[in-house]
Amino acid sequence: MDEEYDVIVLGTGLKECILSGLLSVDGLKVLHMDRNDYYGGESSSLSLVQLWKRFRANDKPSEQLGSSKEYNVDMIPKFMMANGALVRVLIHTDVTKYLNFKAVDGSFVYNKGKIHKVPATDVEALKSPLMGLFEKRRARKFFIYVQDYEDNDPKSHEGLDLTKVTARDIISKYGLDDNTVDFIGHALALHIDDNYLDEPALDFVKRMKLYAESLARFQGGSPYIYPLYGLGELPQAFARLSAVYGGTYMLNKPECKVEFDGNGKAYGVTSEGETAKCKKVVCDPSYLPDKVKKVGKVARAICIMSHPIPETSDSHSVQVILPQKQLGRKSDMYLFCCSYTHNVAPNGKYIAFVSTEAETDQPEVELKPGIELLGPVDEIFFDIYDRYQPVNKHDEDHCFISQSYDATTHFESTVHDVLAMYTKITGKELDLSVDLSAASAAAE
Amino acid sequence: MATIGNNNLNAKLVLLGDMGAGKSSLVLRFVKGQFLEFQESTIGAAFFSQTLAVNDATVKFEIWDTAGQERYHSLAPMYYRGAAAAIIVYDITSTESFTRAKKWVQELQKQGNPNMVMAFAGNKADLEEKRKVTAEEARLYAEENGLFFMETSAKTASNVNDIFYEIARRLPRAQPQNPAGMVLVDRPADRSQSAACCS
């Protein structure tokens, strides 16, 4: 350990592992440590025994649930948009070769007490029971506009400068009603609140395009993919990338205390009496609690079930978005379900999550509308955790701290944070303009 | 994971053993026919594939090297996941590496795949004058633990191809199919197939 590193990374969560991989590939000398004896930090996937230790304070899960080892229960459940930023990072780094994916069966939205398939194209809009006859036609026209929109083709813009007009303007141009806007904004464009309505429409349109293009990619029932054996595979795969490019890995390192010089600049990390020197420190909020502030909290229910979520066409893997307005809340609620078909549970078992940005201290009460949609559950665990954001000045202290994971069930915000950190650490932009139209999936 | 199609077997093979036992050298000799006297610690490439023809079938090995993550015992569970075969490597001139190799065998047995083919390789067999571990001792250990044993030399190529062929021969031909996922690749798919069906 008595060496000097360019960067010491603390915590093996997904964000830290992606950064460790990218920095090692850049030729930087990286030391990566974790206080736990397993990979993944907050974004690990737990076996049944680990789950029981964490939430039930014993290691004796009920035997009816099957083998503990066959469970990989995500602590931060999320799906990957097939054409999204995380897939771009995976392809850019060639980490894909360590992972096996499967498409997610369904993408649904909650509307007026019922679960509906999310219509993503003009054809689906016409079939969707979410809208009345005339609204369907209006929505269809809007979907066609979005599908045809190309940045570099002014003809497709229909005279609108999307960097100037707001999302609200474009919606009223097509005459869409509030109900349609609700599911388009939250279940397709994946906005977490309604602030986007008063921002330039370009982001909104691009998010809709991303959804439709991701959906078309694998001819599955949703735009999402998910790795076999759970998300805990992702940090491990990026850690391997880092190691392949010379990164040094140490797990089970207690303390991991960041050392600062007289000017408040980080110069190393101490664990077990040894100090490794470095130029920069990258970590999750738990390693530098004095340099972060609480910005919210996430409430989550983790359920083990023996059936799929009702009304989702027997989907073995599914996302259901419950837009804020439908529940009279300030933030959306998300259902996420995965099963033995993604190797996260033994045969016949399903893992479902209900998540939201917490507005109270009673997750049991707050998550009830989502939990009620699940039907009977074999086991249920409640979790509530604080979300942190860094408040330090990285040019002064040379510390680069990630934000806590949010309640969303997709990775777009996660990768955004990683890319911004990468730019701060290296002064470079990561070029992710891989040609995704050329990228594809090969069955193994 | 070993998967079958038309007598073609895909098998993930992992290497285990102490730093400096010669894991990467064995792979480089097998895959590229090369040997470097002062092989650097593994950097930049830790994933190889090589296809062998055995009897009536071909076996495509996907070989995973440790990428140095064995050094501080930080190999991820992903490394072992789905492995159909493993080579545990020690250096015949080092009793310590032999002792550690036995620990790796225990670690593998904990993963609980009864079908895994395990090979025990006493490497650096060309350094006879410096030998510290007898072949007899290693063979006995291997037999007791259900491994097959060979002494190899990445330097002279002795037994290197043989150990991989022997693994290929021993791979169970009728393994339960693993649920097939997809691997994302950075090249155009053969779209003609899917396009043709709907026209």
TrEMBL record, chain A:
<dbReference type="GO" id="GO:0007264">
    <property type="term" value="P:small GTPase-mediated signal transduction"/>
</dbReference>
<dbReference type="InterPro" id="IPR036188">
    <property type="entry name" value="FAD/NAD-bd_sf"/>
</dbReference>
<comment type="similarity">
    <text>Belongs to the Rab GDI family.</text>
</comment>
<dbReference type="GO" id="GO:0005737">
    <property type="term" value="C:cytoplasm"/>
</dbReference>
<dbReference type="Pfam" id="PF00996">
    <property type="entry name" value="GDI"/>
</dbReference>
<dbReference type="InterPro" id="IPR000806">
    <property type="entry name" value="RabGDI"/>
</dbReference>
<protein>
    <recommendedName>
        <fullName>Guanosine nucleotide diphosphate dissociation inhibitor</fullName>
    </recommendedName>
</protein>
<dbReference type="GO" id="GO:0016192">
    <property type="term" value="P:vesicle-mediated transport"/>
</dbReference>
<dbReference type="GO" id="GO:0015031">
    <property type="term" value="P:protein transport"/>
</dbReference>
<dbReference type="GO" id="GO:0005093">
    <property type="term" value="F:Rab GDP-dissociation inhibitor activity"/>
</dbReference>
<dbReference type="GO" id="GO:0005096">
    <property type="term" value="F:GTPase activator activity"/>
</dbReference>
<dbReference type="InterPro" id="IPR018203">
    <property type="entry name" value="GDP_dissociation_inhibitor"/>
</dbReference>
<keyword id="KW-0343">GTPase activation</keyword>
TrEMBL record, chain B:
<keyword id="KW-0342">GTP-binding</keyword>
<keyword id="KW-0653">Protein transport</keyword>
<dbReference type="GO" id="GO:0005737">
    <property type="term" value="C:cytoplasm"/>
</dbReference>
<dbReference type="GO" id="GO:0005525">
    <property type="term" value="F:GTP binding"/>
</dbReference>
<dbReference type="InterPro" id="IPR027417">
    <property type="entry name" value="P-loop_NTPase"/>
</dbReference>
<dbReference type="GO" id="GO:0015031">
    <property type="term" value="P:protein transport"/>
</dbReference>
<protein>
    <submittedName>
        <fullName>Ras-related protein rab5</fullName>
    </submittedName>
</protein>
<comment type="similarity">
    <text>Belongs to the small GTPase superfamily. Rab family.</text>
</comment>
<dbReference type="GO" id="GO:0012505">
    <property type="term" value="C:endomembrane system"/>
</dbReference>
<dbReference type="InterPro" id="IPR005225">
    <property type="entry name" value="Small_GTP-bd"/>
</dbReference>
<keyword id="KW-0472">Membrane</keyword>
<dbReference type="InterPro" id="IPR001806">
    <property type="entry name" value="Small_GTPase"/>
</dbReference>
<dbReference type="Pfam" id="PF00071">
    <property type="entry name" value="Ras"/>
</dbReference>
<keyword id="KW-0547">Nucleotide-binding</keyword>
<keyword id="KW-0636">Prenylation</keyword>
<keyword id="KW-0449">Lipoprotein</keyword>
<keyword id="KW-0813">Transport</keyword>
<dbReference type="GO" id="GO:0003924">
    <property type="term" value="F:GTPase activity"/>
</dbReference>
